[in-house]
Amino acid sequence: MSKKLIITLLIIAGVLLLIVSSMISMYNGLVSKDEKAKESWAQVQNVYQRRADLVPQLVATVKGAADFEKSTLNEVIQARAAATSIKVDPSNATPEQLKAFQAAQDQLSSSLSRLLVTVERYPDLKANKNFLTLQAQLEGTENRIAVERKKFNEAVQDYNQTIRSFPRNIVAGMFGFEKRAYFEATAAAQTAPEVNFEF
Fold it and tell me: What CATH number has the domain bearing residue 75?
């Protein structure tokens, strides 16, 4: 084998090694961003679950009030059941699935808002320490929901931008990394429900 051929083979091997190591690096970067988007969605679900977990305590506290409207409580209970029944797999979530998830969450928010407005007519309940604590926790949870939805969309934007950028788009296509859906809340859901704490 001639010296020239050996040098040529070494150059080709070096270029191939550089390409392979670059592809491995890009693949690992895509996996990292994919996992970040999944983790961000898990946090969104976590704060929604926190809110859903507060609802039974709130309902139990309100049930203790004499002659409280049962229809209002039933509406909250049904909305909670609907909100917790929708599961979204972040790996292949479609915009439609995210909209259905958000619609159920919006219904729960709306029911809770009506419940809290109705409470205004019950002075004993408004003075109940457990109720006040739950009300404050609910408000804090609504704020956390907004923060986590924002973080999720930022993670999805970073991931989507990465898989569409050259040359990562080639690696993404080879290994099946697909664009993710954003969390798009309805216009009414973009602000936390108003809760009046002034008695």
Answer: 1.20.1440.20
